[in-house]
Design goal:
four-stranded antiparallel sheet; mainly beta; about 50% strand; 1 helix; Methylamine Dehydrogenase, Chain H; single chain; 28 strands
Length: about 375
Protein backbone atom coordinates (compact mmCIF):
# COMPACT_ATOMS: atom_id res chain seq x y z
CA UNK A 1 0.00 0.00 0.00
CA UNK A 2 1.15 3.50 -0.79
CA UNK A 3 0.20 4.80 2.63
CA UNK A 4 1.11 8.18 4.10
CA UNK A 5 3.06 9.29 1.00
CA UNK A 6 0.18 11.50 -0.05
CA UNK A 7 -0.54 12.63 3.49
CA UNK A 8 2.88 14.21 3.79
CA UNK A 9 2.10 16.49 0.87
CA UNK A 10 -0.80 17.97 2.79
CA UNK A 11 1.08 18.82 5.98
CA UNK A 12 0.84 22.55 6.49
CA UNK A 13 -1.08 23.04 3.25
CA UNK A 14 -4.16 25.25 3.00
CA UNK A 15 -7.49 23.53 2.58
CA UNK A 16 -8.12 25.37 -0.66
CA UNK A 17 -5.82 27.06 -3.15
CA UNK A 18 -5.79 30.86 -3.16
CA UNK A 19 -8.10 32.94 -5.32
CA UNK A 20 -7.59 32.64 -9.05
CA UNK A 21 -9.35 33.93 -12.12
CA UNK A 22 -8.36 31.19 -14.50
CA UNK A 23 -6.10 33.20 -16.81
CA UNK A 24 -2.32 33.40 -17.19
CA UNK A 25 -1.74 36.54 -15.11
CA UNK A 26 -1.06 37.75 -11.57
CA UNK A 27 -3.79 35.93 -9.71
CA UNK A 28 -3.27 37.94 -6.54
CA UNK A 29 -5.47 40.63 -8.10
CA UNK A 30 -8.14 38.39 -9.57
CA UNK A 31 -11.38 36.82 -8.39
CA UNK A 32 -12.51 33.36 -7.42
CA UNK A 33 -11.96 30.58 -9.94
CA UNK A 34 -14.09 27.49 -10.43
CA UNK A 35 -14.06 24.42 -12.67
CA UNK A 36 -16.91 23.20 -14.86
CA UNK A 37 -17.52 19.52 -15.53
CA UNK A 38 -19.50 18.77 -18.70
CA UNK A 39 -20.94 16.13 -20.97
CA UNK A 40 -18.86 16.07 -24.14
CA UNK A 41 -20.97 13.49 -25.97
CA UNK A 42 -23.83 15.19 -27.76
CA UNK A 43 -22.38 18.67 -27.22
CA UNK A 44 -19.58 20.99 -28.34
CA UNK A 45 -17.70 20.55 -25.07
CA UNK A 46 -14.05 19.48 -25.09
CA UNK A 47 -13.84 18.55 -21.40
CA UNK A 48 -13.28 20.57 -18.20
CA UNK A 49 -13.52 24.36 -18.29
CA UNK A 50 -12.48 27.10 -15.90
CA UNK A 51 -14.11 30.43 -15.15
CA UNK A 52 -13.72 33.36 -12.78
CA UNK A 53 -16.23 35.01 -10.46
CA UNK A 54 -15.67 38.66 -9.54
CA UNK A 55 -16.36 38.77 -5.78
CA UNK A 56 -17.47 42.40 -5.90
CA UNK A 57 -19.78 42.51 -8.92
CA UNK A 58 -20.76 38.84 -9.12
CA UNK A 59 -19.85 38.79 -12.81
CA UNK A 60 -18.69 35.55 -14.44
CA UNK A 61 -15.62 36.06 -16.63
CA UNK A 62 -12.56 34.55 -18.32
CA UNK A 63 -14.26 31.32 -19.33
CA UNK A 64 -11.79 28.94 -21.04
CA UNK A 65 -10.95 25.28 -21.57
CA UNK A 66 -8.82 23.95 -18.70
CA UNK A 67 -8.28 20.34 -19.75
CA UNK A 68 -9.44 17.90 -22.40
CA UNK A 69 -11.48 14.93 -21.19
CA UNK A 70 -14.45 12.75 -22.14
CA UNK A 71 -17.74 13.20 -20.27
CA UNK A 72 -16.15 14.61 -17.08
CA UNK A 73 -19.51 14.79 -15.36
CA UNK A 74 -18.16 15.18 -11.81
CA UNK A 75 -14.90 16.65 -10.53
CA UNK A 76 -13.19 17.21 -7.19
CA UNK A 77 -9.91 18.68 -5.91
CA UNK A 78 -7.44 17.30 -3.41
CA UNK A 79 -7.38 19.42 -0.22
CA UNK A 80 -4.10 21.12 -1.22
CA UNK A 81 -5.45 21.96 -4.68
CA UNK A 82 -2.56 20.26 -6.47
CA UNK A 83 -4.65 17.61 -8.24
CA UNK A 84 -8.10 17.40 -9.75
CA UNK A 85 -9.96 14.11 -10.13
CA UNK A 86 -12.69 13.59 -12.70
CA UNK A 87 -14.90 10.69 -13.69
CA UNK A 88 -15.37 9.85 -17.33
CA UNK A 89 -19.02 8.84 -17.42
CA UNK A 90 -18.71 6.16 -20.09
CA UNK A 91 -19.64 2.48 -20.13
CA UNK A 92 -17.66 1.42 -23.20
CA UNK A 93 -14.13 1.43 -21.83
CA UNK A 94 -13.73 -2.22 -20.90
CA UNK A 95 -16.16 -4.66 -22.46
CA UNK A 96 -19.03 -2.17 -22.08
CA UNK A 97 -18.81 -2.42 -18.29
CA UNK A 98 -16.40 0.30 -17.15
CA UNK A 99 -15.94 4.05 -17.03
CA UNK A 100 -12.81 5.87 -15.88
CA UNK A 101 -11.41 7.95 -13.05
CA UNK A 102 -8.80 10.44 -14.29
CA UNK A 103 -6.20 12.46 -12.38
CA UNK A 104 -4.96 15.90 -13.47
CA UNK A 105 -2.14 18.13 -12.23
CA UNK A 106 -3.34 21.67 -11.54
CA UNK A 107 -1.29 24.63 -12.78
CA UNK A 108 -1.98 27.07 -9.95
CA UNK A 109 -0.91 30.12 -11.95
CA UNK A 110 -3.37 29.53 -14.79
CA UNK A 111 -5.84 26.92 -13.55
CA UNK A 112 -5.05 24.70 -16.51
CA UNK A 113 -5.06 20.93 -16.12
CA UNK A 114 -2.59 18.31 -17.32
CA UNK A 115 -3.71 14.69 -17.39
CA UNK A 116 -1.53 12.36 -15.31
CA UNK A 117 -3.30 9.03 -15.82
CA UNK A 118 -6.66 7.30 -15.75
CA UNK A 119 -7.92 3.94 -14.56
CA UNK A 120 -11.19 1.98 -14.87
CA UNK A 121 -13.63 3.32 -12.28
CA UNK A 122 -14.84 -0.04 -11.00
CA UNK A 123 -18.12 -0.02 -12.90
CA UNK A 124 -20.23 1.53 -15.64
CA UNK A 125 -21.18 5.20 -15.91
CA UNK A 126 -19.29 6.71 -12.95
CA UNK A 127 -21.08 9.92 -11.95
CA UNK A 128 -19.37 10.96 -8.70
CA UNK A 129 -15.87 11.19 -7.23
CA UNK A 130 -14.57 12.19 -3.79
CA UNK A 131 -11.10 12.34 -2.21
CA UNK A 132 -9.89 12.56 1.40
CA UNK A 133 -6.71 14.14 2.88
CA UNK A 134 -4.89 10.78 2.85
CA UNK A 135 -5.35 10.52 -0.92
CA UNK A 136 -8.01 7.81 -0.92
CA UNK A 137 -10.64 8.37 -3.61
CA UNK A 138 -14.16 7.06 -4.17
CA UNK A 139 -16.23 6.62 -7.30
CA UNK A 140 -19.95 5.97 -7.62
CA UNK A 141 -20.79 3.89 -10.71
CA UNK A 142 -24.42 4.47 -11.63
CA UNK A 143 -25.31 1.77 -14.14
CA UNK A 144 -23.44 -1.06 -12.38
CA UNK A 145 -24.46 0.07 -8.88
CA UNK A 146 -20.97 -0.12 -7.40
CA UNK A 147 -18.54 2.00 -5.38
CA UNK A 148 -14.82 1.97 -6.16
CA UNK A 149 -11.94 2.74 -3.80
CA UNK A 150 -8.64 4.16 -5.13
CA UNK A 151 -5.53 5.90 -3.85
CA UNK A 152 -3.40 8.72 -5.20
CA UNK A 153 0.37 8.38 -5.15
CA UNK A 154 2.62 11.26 -4.12
CA UNK A 155 2.86 12.51 -7.71
CA UNK A 156 -0.90 12.46 -8.28
CA UNK A 157 -1.02 9.10 -10.09
CA UNK A 158 -4.31 7.32 -9.42
CA UNK A 159 -4.05 3.64 -8.54
CA UNK A 160 -6.02 0.82 -10.05
CA UNK A 161 -9.13 0.01 -8.02
CA UNK A 162 -8.11 -1.20 -4.57
CA UNK A 163 -11.61 -2.41 -3.83
CA UNK A 164 -15.06 -2.41 -5.45
CA UNK A 165 -18.24 -2.80 -3.42
CA UNK A 166 -21.16 -4.12 -5.48
CA UNK A 167 -24.60 -3.09 -4.26
CA UNK A 168 -27.54 -5.50 -4.53
CA UNK A 169 -31.30 -5.11 -4.70
CA UNK A 170 -33.91 -2.99 -6.44
CA UNK A 171 -36.74 -0.57 -5.74
CA UNK A 172 -40.45 -0.48 -6.67
CA UNK A 173 -40.06 1.80 -9.71
CA UNK A 174 -39.87 -0.71 -12.58
CA UNK A 175 -38.57 1.89 -15.02
CA UNK A 176 -35.70 3.22 -12.92
CA UNK A 177 -35.04 0.77 -10.10
CA UNK A 178 -34.57 -2.65 -11.70
CA UNK A 179 -31.18 -2.86 -10.00
CA UNK A 180 -28.74 -0.82 -7.90
CA UNK A 181 -27.66 2.63 -9.12
CA UNK A 182 -24.94 4.18 -6.95
CA UNK A 183 -25.25 7.93 -7.47
CA UNK A 184 -22.76 9.38 -4.98
CA UNK A 185 -20.14 8.36 -2.43
CA UNK A 186 -18.75 10.57 0.35
CA UNK A 187 -16.19 10.44 3.11
CA UNK A 188 -18.07 11.19 6.34
CA UNK A 189 -17.34 13.98 8.84
CA UNK A 190 -15.31 11.64 11.07
CA UNK A 191 -12.90 10.91 8.21
CA UNK A 192 -13.27 7.16 8.68
CA UNK A 193 -16.81 6.49 7.43
CA UNK A 194 -18.09 6.34 3.85
CA UNK A 195 -21.68 7.00 2.73
CA UNK A 196 -23.00 6.00 -0.70
CA UNK A 197 -26.49 6.99 -1.91
CA UNK A 198 -28.04 4.35 -4.18
CA UNK A 199 -30.98 5.51 -6.28
CA UNK A 200 -31.85 1.98 -7.38
CA UNK A 201 -32.17 0.32 -3.97
CA UNK A 202 -33.50 3.31 -1.97
CA UNK A 203 -30.64 2.99 0.52
CA UNK A 204 -27.67 4.94 1.81
CA UNK A 205 -24.88 2.39 2.22
CA UNK A 206 -22.51 2.90 5.15
CA UNK A 207 -18.91 1.67 5.23
CA UNK A 208 -15.78 2.03 7.31
CA UNK A 209 -12.59 2.81 5.41
CA UNK A 210 -9.98 0.16 6.18
CA UNK A 211 -6.94 2.17 5.10
CA UNK A 212 -4.41 -0.49 6.07
CA UNK A 213 -5.94 -3.08 3.77
CA UNK A 214 -7.46 -0.79 1.16
CA UNK A 215 -11.06 -1.94 1.68
CA UNK A 216 -14.54 -0.66 2.39
CA UNK A 217 -16.02 -2.60 5.31
CA UNK A 218 -19.80 -2.51 5.92
CA UNK A 219 -20.63 -0.83 9.24
CA UNK A 220 -22.79 -2.19 12.04
CA UNK A 221 -25.68 -0.45 10.33
CA UNK A 222 -24.76 -1.24 6.71
CA UNK A 223 -27.71 0.50 5.06
CA UNK A 224 -29.98 3.44 5.91
CA UNK A 225 -33.34 2.93 4.16
CA UNK A 226 -35.12 5.81 2.47
CA UNK A 227 -38.79 5.74 1.45
CA UNK A 228 -39.63 3.13 -1.22
CA UNK A 229 -39.26 4.66 -4.68
CA UNK A 230 -37.60 7.82 -3.35
CA UNK A 231 -34.32 7.30 -5.20
CA UNK A 232 -31.65 8.85 -2.91
CA UNK A 233 -29.13 10.82 -4.96
CA UNK A 234 -26.82 13.14 -2.99
CA UNK A 235 -25.97 13.93 0.64
CA UNK A 236 -25.05 17.04 2.65
CA UNK A 237 -23.59 16.87 6.16
CA UNK A 238 -24.61 19.33 8.86
CA UNK A 239 -21.85 21.49 10.38
CA UNK A 240 -21.87 19.68 13.73
CA UNK A 241 -21.43 16.26 12.12
CA UNK A 242 -24.52 14.94 13.88
CA UNK A 243 -27.01 15.19 11.03
CA UNK A 244 -26.95 14.45 7.35
CA UNK A 245 -29.52 15.40 4.75
CA UNK A 246 -30.35 13.11 1.81
CA UNK A 247 -31.94 14.49 -1.33
CA UNK A 248 -34.03 11.95 -3.24
CA UNK A 249 -34.28 12.37 -6.98
CA UNK A 250 -37.64 10.73 -7.65
CA UNK A 251 -39.36 11.38 -4.33
CA UNK A 252 -38.40 15.08 -4.49
CA UNK A 253 -37.66 15.15 -0.78
CA UNK A 254 -34.90 16.02 1.65
CA UNK A 255 -34.63 13.56 4.54
CA UNK A 256 -32.80 14.32 7.78
CA UNK A 257 -30.83 11.46 9.33
CA UNK A 258 -29.49 11.81 12.88
CA UNK A 259 -26.07 10.22 13.39
CA UNK A 260 -26.03 8.56 16.81
CA UNK A 261 -23.05 8.28 19.16
CA UNK A 262 -23.18 4.48 19.07
CA UNK A 263 -22.67 4.43 15.31
CA UNK A 264 -26.33 3.95 14.48
CA UNK A 265 -28.67 6.21 12.54
CA UNK A 266 -32.15 7.55 13.13
CA UNK A 267 -34.14 8.51 10.02
CA UNK A 268 -36.10 11.62 10.94
CA UNK A 269 -38.53 13.78 8.97
CA UNK A 270 -38.65 14.31 5.20
CA UNK A 271 -39.67 17.60 3.60
CA UNK A 272 -40.84 18.06 0.02
CA UNK A 273 -39.09 20.32 -2.48
CA UNK A 274 -42.37 20.75 -4.37
CA UNK A 275 -45.10 23.35 -3.88
CA UNK A 276 -48.27 22.07 -2.25
CA UNK A 277 -50.57 20.39 -4.75
CA UNK A 278 -48.00 20.24 -7.55
CA UNK A 279 -48.42 17.12 -9.71
CA UNK A 280 -46.22 17.93 -12.71
CA UNK A 281 -42.97 16.26 -13.70
CA UNK A 282 -39.92 16.95 -11.53
CA UNK A 283 -36.76 15.32 -10.25
CA UNK A 284 -34.31 16.60 -7.66
CA UNK A 285 -30.56 16.80 -8.22
CA UNK A 286 -28.17 18.69 -5.93
CA UNK A 287 -28.06 19.64 -2.25
CA UNK A 288 -25.73 21.95 -0.28
CA UNK A 289 -25.53 23.66 3.11
CA UNK A 290 -24.25 27.20 3.59
CA UNK A 291 -20.85 27.51 5.33
CA UNK A 292 -22.50 28.98 8.44
CA UNK A 293 -24.87 25.99 8.65
CA UNK A 294 -28.01 28.15 8.63
CA UNK A 295 -29.48 27.31 5.23
CA UNK A 296 -29.87 24.28 3.00
CA UNK A 297 -30.37 24.52 -0.77
CA UNK A 298 -31.86 21.92 -3.12
CA UNK A 299 -32.42 21.92 -6.88
CA UNK A 300 -35.57 20.93 -8.78
CA UNK A 301 -35.38 19.82 -12.41
CA UNK A 302 -38.75 20.42 -14.03
CA UNK A 303 -39.73 23.32 -11.85
CA UNK A 304 -36.17 24.50 -12.57
CA UNK A 305 -35.56 26.30 -9.31
CA UNK A 306 -33.53 26.30 -6.12
CA UNK A 307 -35.47 25.67 -2.91
CA UNK A 308 -34.16 27.49 0.16
CA UNK A 309 -34.61 25.89 3.61
CA UNK A 310 -33.79 27.32 7.03
CA UNK A 311 -32.09 24.86 9.40
CA UNK A 312 -33.37 25.21 12.95
CA UNK A 313 -30.25 25.60 15.14
CA UNK A 314 -31.69 23.41 17.88
CA UNK A 315 -33.77 20.68 16.21
CA UNK A 316 -31.96 20.79 12.83
CA UNK A 317 -35.36 20.50 11.14
CA UNK A 318 -35.92 22.24 7.81
CA UNK A 319 -38.40 25.02 7.08
CA UNK A 320 -38.85 26.25 3.52
CA UNK A 321 -38.13 29.97 3.17
CA UNK A 322 -38.61 30.40 -0.56
CA UNK A 323 -37.48 29.48 -4.06
CA UNK A 324 -35.44 31.08 -6.83
CA UNK A 325 -35.77 30.32 -10.53
CA UNK A 326 -32.51 29.26 -12.16
CA UNK A 327 -33.00 31.17 -15.44
CA UNK A 328 -32.40 28.01 -17.42
CA UNK A 329 -33.35 24.36 -17.77
CA UNK A 330 -32.37 21.31 -15.72
CA UNK A 331 -30.20 22.52 -12.80
CA UNK A 332 -28.25 19.28 -12.39
CA UNK A 333 -25.62 20.84 -10.13
CA UNK A 334 -24.93 23.97 -8.13
CA UNK A 335 -22.28 25.10 -5.69
CA UNK A 336 -21.71 27.72 -3.01
CA UNK A 337 -18.62 29.91 -3.07
CA UNK A 338 -16.17 29.18 -0.22
CA UNK A 339 -17.15 32.42 1.53
CA UNK A 340 -20.84 31.60 1.15
CA UNK A 341 -21.62 34.87 -0.63
CA UNK A 342 -22.56 33.36 -3.99
CA UNK A 343 -24.42 30.37 -5.39
CA UNK A 344 -23.70 29.21 -8.95
CA UNK A 345 -26.03 26.94 -10.93
CA UNK A 346 -25.18 24.63 -13.86
CA UNK A 347 -28.21 24.34 -16.15
CA UNK A 348 -27.57 21.22 -18.21
CA UNK A 349 -30.23 21.55 -20.91
CA UNK A 350 -30.06 25.31 -21.50
CA UNK A 351 -26.24 25.34 -21.65
CA UNK A 352 -25.73 28.17 -19.17
CA UNK A 353 -24.23 28.87 -15.77
CA UNK A 354 -25.99 31.42 -13.58
CA UNK A 355 -24.57 33.32 -10.60
CA UNK A 356 -26.61 34.54 -7.63
CA UNK A 357 -25.54 36.65 -4.68
CA UNK A 358 -26.61 35.07 -1.40
CA UNK A 359 -27.99 37.03 1.54
CA UNK A 360 -26.37 35.41 4.61
CA UNK A 361 -29.14 36.61 6.92
CA UNK A 362 -32.19 35.53 4.93
CA UNK A 363 -30.59 32.86 2.70
CA UNK A 364 -32.32 34.36 -0.34
CA UNK A 365 -30.68 34.67 -3.77
CA UNK A 366 -30.30 37.62 -6.17
CA UNK A 367 -29.25 37.21 -9.81
CA UNK A 368 -25.91 38.77 -10.81
CA UNK A 369 -24.76 37.28 -14.13
CA UNK A 370 -24.61 34.26 -16.43
CA UNK A 371 -22.49 32.73 -19.19
CA UNK A 372 -23.02 30.13 -21.88
CA UNK A 373 -21.33 26.73 -21.44
CA UNK A 374 -21.88 23.39 -23.24
CA UNK A 375 -23.78 20.82 -21.14
CA UNK A 376 -22.51 22.01 -17.72
CA UNK A 377 -23.20 19.40 -15.04
CA UNK A 378 -20.70 20.06 -12.23
CA UNK A 379 -19.25 23.22 -10.65
CA UNK A 380 -16.28 23.25 -8.27
CA UNK A 381 -14.55 26.26 -6.71
CA UNK A 382 -10.80 26.09 -6.45
Amino acid sequence: MKKNIFLLLFAGAAVLAGPAKGVAQDNSKSGMMFYIGTYTEGSDSKGIYRCGLDPESGQLENYALAGVSVNPSFVTLTPDGNYLLAVQEKNTAVGNTQGYIESFAVDKSTGNLKSINKEPSGGADPCFVAVNPEGFALTANYTSGSVGLFQLDGDGTISKALYVSQHEGHGPNVNRQKGPHAHSSYFGPDGNSVFAADLGTDDVYVYRLDADNGKLVPCKTPQIPMAPGAGPRHIAFGPNGQNMYVISEMGCTVTRVAMKDDGGFDVKESVSTLPKGYDGENTCAEIAISPDGKYLYASNRGLDNIVIFFIDPQSRKLTEKGTEGVRGKTPRNFTLSPDGKFLLVANQNSNNIVAFRRNPETGMLTYTSEIKAPKPVCLLFR
